[in-house]
Task: inverse folding
């Protein structure tokens, strides 16, 4: 690890212009080592399928996938000469396409470092100010196009499995001890540069499209606290933290956690994204990994390449084994 | 290869309910073999960044990335109690998020098998009828959520390099001979199960966001013809065909190519997607591969998990080497 | 009245190409007569304000009003030269504009004749077929741009007032007798060419933005039945029927009403829009008229001029008195 | 007139909380007087029909009218029980509805007083600051829902007719003398409280949907200058100013006009909306009025009731005669 300090983690250590954070640690060597973990050729899809009915945080924009062009519509509309028989299309070729209206923060996500701001000047990671780098068309610093392709060792920590429950209860704070216990039971460790995915069991209720809002909301509030996050980053060198919930951290935070960053509704986000430059993986489907007891793998993910967006959204990261 | 027949390719050979096409050929063994090609740990991002100004086919819906929530807006709007100081947010945590309005057919894409329909009954791959499987919220058969994670051997065929041009001229038809010539010059072959990405050079004009529509449009019309497509699928067993243009095939098609499928404005699409069940990779950025003379690699890509959409859009596939 | 027949109403009597329906009855003379009813110069705004939280029928697309350009965004984005000091804008002129994403069927509406289809061939008014006149970009026959400006005598029928209730109960069917009773109590009559607005009291719960979905849903299901609709059109010559609910008619319909048009979830819509060519006014705010006991007035309304849309939406019709 | 001062006009004279501006001048008496001008019962529709191809200022969000629900889609999708035969819909009732994605500043508009900000603090009319009254979901002061129904005397000033041209040339500044000349030729005057609509002839090129961008852009830059605007407001007491162009004023402004408000790309907007509290009517179709030589009429218009939007958009104001 180039800039990680045990007991301290990372922080704003990559230069004044950096938008990448600790993913700068990835090297050809680390990627190669991660891919060496693949011995069976299995590919686990960690994505949760999204549609207009999917559970999401209520503050986000709604999702609509709307048939934009359809074979019947193309034929009826006749707005493009080349689609008509007279235009040569005697075989009747047509197409489906859709207009997507959606949030950049839904379903399986990777939070970019610019997602969260904090403090009187609304600063994001590395001190970039929202007033300077925001705008009408999304964020102009640390948007998702600055997130490099992620290829790294991944470890799944099955806390729900350790507790022998389908899913952790509402608002449950996953502690350092929970994580250490699960790692011990799984006989795997978090080494510096590892992406850590923590299983609460919530994704088991996603189903076809995440339409059972009540059930999902109930378990979605479980997650790690600030103590566990700090231990993973500062003592273990975790390259990114993730979970099978919409927000990784338990909510609402206890006063001590909230006050640790000066009063916040999501102190773990502030700590990881803004203060440490550590990305957050959300709503990753860990059910198949748990069923197969796959605890160590090569994690491979890329966000969409959409300028201005602050989170990869509706992704399908891979656990390769 | 399980169902490929030399001289014939695939077709509707995977059963009446199949929505996957020839990607059914992928196995643990084939994925493992593909990943074995990675010897250096380099990850080439094949995605082209998209924004509201990006070049796209004019029939698609426009793209807008609109700042939905912003720190200033959250503070002014005060619509969520927990974001206010009284609600405990004394440290002033806020966030950026965006509303995305876009087509499912822009920038770097993987066309799903349901994208194209053909014939008097508007059939897509495997005979599914648009009138039965379309709908108001996107396609209900062969949408992108049915595309499995793609991990396969990839080969880049640098036709622009062979011709020693920056980019192929407008409407140029890439022939079987061009491809054979480039493969010979590169000393690499297409073996059954290979994903073939053909370079026209068009993507070199994409730049930050594809805003030079005139320049891109000029070269974007070059691509393979039906003869080259058939040879790659039927004789060589290509698992998927792609390029650095918006449509893979040269346009407009010559009458013979159009008539070969009964009259069509994009006969190669009809042949590959509908008749053969072979996916198409579009607008892949092959410039860095060409610069580094990387011709063989592990291709890894997943589409977004958005139900109803017919193409992975604004993707960042990887060439791992 | 040019084509109205007592005991029969209108129907498809305006020629094979007609998209206007019984609004063809309006003449200079009828408009002038309607405006003569204005003796005080009072203008009652019948519109209900719409925003992202407003109650609407769940099958419609969501509403988002998103700040698209803002002074802070314009200044930060610097994408337009003329907005910068160097471009001459030393005084700092900027602007607000919004991106609207909404349904064409929300808040205060006028249903166009193409809104509803019925029967095995999905026919709309005058026998136009959806398969021929639909398309990808809205309806191509009887869209709202074919609705002429409406200037006509209006009568408000205060059924909630007659019953001495705040609002009619859930699912209540307003009968011909209810309407006759209210007209008698109000000492006003429906003459041929009159627009009839029937008050259930539901709009009193709309408030700032219609956010009390539960309360609105409770009363929104009251409305007229087929018998009252037929009497108003066929015996009284009503030019249009409206109410202060989202759908004018009581729901769900009793089997006899449903079967009267061959089985339908909204038989009054089928009868008025498709069979008779009579427009429907929905979610009109009649509270101020009721408070001032204004029962007769000049009704003036125009829809937006948006091609393809099937209902004027979020309108502010006027009752001039 | 309650607050108008000759030689000064209005300004911020309606109290610190006012969002209405000089439309406060309208009274029952003034509305009644305006409606008395209607002697023939003719209704002139001043709206220009809008669709996805319509000309608009390039800084605005794109327009898409997308078929959201259609009879074929409803039948195929089967997502709502009551639409199925089993659910009782044996007659096959279905519907068309659309998703509208559009700017609040297109086609026939009324600019609200919050549309334009100016000065170092981005103030709008009456000193409201954008930083305080903006937000994520549109403007929270002086949005269109605060614009009262407009019923007033209207006068059309046919400058193109006076000059005997089809449309005024590109960038032409309409002067006070032009307006006085046209009024003289028309034998009509602007009295205090009159809405003044100035014809350049540009709308004659709108056609079905404003798709001839080049032709429209050419003439759209003609309009009034600051001198004419001031004369109309301060000397004549005009209640609102409008035109048949997208921006009322000629562009780009001469340095003297720009500097008169401290450096601005649209000084007439700053003067009228922000400094005087006078609304602007844009892209009003004055062609039929010109053809019939109708110069004096009752102007009746309401904006849509959409909270947060800053301009009535795609409207159909009426000239009643």
Result:
């Amino acid at each position: 690890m180039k800039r990680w300090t045990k007991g301290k983690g990372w922080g704003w250590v990559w230069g004044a212009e950096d938008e990448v954070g600790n993913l700068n640690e990835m090297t050809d060597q680390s990627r190669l080592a991660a891919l060496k973990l693949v011995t069976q050729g299995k590919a686990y899809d960690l994505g949760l399928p999204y549609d207009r009915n999917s559970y999401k945080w209520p503050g986000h924009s709604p999702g609509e996938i709307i048939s934009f062009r359809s074979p019947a519509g193309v034929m009826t509309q006749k707005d493009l000469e080349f689609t008509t028989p007279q235009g040569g299309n005697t075989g009747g070729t047509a197409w489906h396409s859709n207009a997507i209206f959606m949030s950049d923060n839904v379903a399986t996500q990777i939070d970019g470092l610019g997602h969260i701001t904090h403090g009187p000047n609304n600063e994001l990671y590395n001190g970039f100010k929202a007033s300077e780098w925001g705008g009408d068309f999304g964020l102009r610093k640390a948007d998702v196009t600055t997130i490099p392709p992620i290829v790294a060792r991944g470890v799944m920590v099955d806390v729900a499995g350790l507790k022998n429950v389908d899913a952790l209860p509402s608002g449950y704070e996953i502690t350092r001890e929970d994580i250490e216990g699960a790692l011990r039971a799984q006989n795997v460790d978090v080494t510096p540069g590892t992406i850590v995915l923590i299983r609460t069991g919530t994704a088991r209720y996603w189903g076809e499209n995440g339409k059972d809002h009540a059930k999902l909301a109930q378990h979605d509030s479980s997650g790690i606290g600030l103590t566990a996050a700090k231990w993973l980053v500062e003592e273990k060198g975790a390259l990114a933290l993730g979970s099978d919930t919409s927000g990784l951290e338990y909510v609402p935070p206890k006063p001590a956690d909230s006050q640790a960053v000066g009063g916040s509704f999501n102190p773990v986000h502030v700590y990881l994204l803004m203060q440490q430059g550590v990305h957050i993986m959300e709503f990753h489907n860990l059910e198949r990994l748990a069923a197969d007891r796959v605890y160590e793998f090569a994690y491979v993910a890329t966000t969409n390449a959409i300028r201005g967006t602050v989170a990869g959204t509706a992704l399908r990261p891979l656990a390769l084994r």
